[in-house]
Inverse folding.
């Protein structure tokens, strides 16, 4: 039997084992709840008509929604882990890369630009790039 230093109450090692087991179960519940929230958020983001993507400081992709993928003809698995320059058309990069650099410096950046699609059509785009913990 041991004594609690703060309360002076006695407790058995079996109590410590039970507390440890409860803490383990709580941790697993928290992980399950976080996973469920992530799934729900992913469902919401994938059903928005706007293009959403998340890139780190080296422009590696960490998330894209389905609308973003549809715009460029790639599945999410093609984007995740790829660098922006490997997959985004060069005429988009010339507009987005400087804005992303400003955002990585902590400035929310908004821009309008025009790009020519492969079929010759001019596309007018608006992008909002938001910094968040070393990512944009």
């Amino acid at each position: 039997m041991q004594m609690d230093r703060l309360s002076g109450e006695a407790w058995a090692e079996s109590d410590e084992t039970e507390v440890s087991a409860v803490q383990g179960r709580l941790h697993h519940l928290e992980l399950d709840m976080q996973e469920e929230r992530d799934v729900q958020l992913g469902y919401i983001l994938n059903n928005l008509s706007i293009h959403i993507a998340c890139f780190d400081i080296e422009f590696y992709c960490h998330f894209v929604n389905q609308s973003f993928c549809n715009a460029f003809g790639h599945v999410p698995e093609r984007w995740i882990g790829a660098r922006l320059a490997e997959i985004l058309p060069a005429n988009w990069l010339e507009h987005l890369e400087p804005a992303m650099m400003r955002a990585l410096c902590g400035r929310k950046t908004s821009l309008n630009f025009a790009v020519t699609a492969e079929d010759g059509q001019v596309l007018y785009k608006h992008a909002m790039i938001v910094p968040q913990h070393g990512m944009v």
Notes: The radius of gyration is 24 Å. The chain has a mean pLDDT of 85.
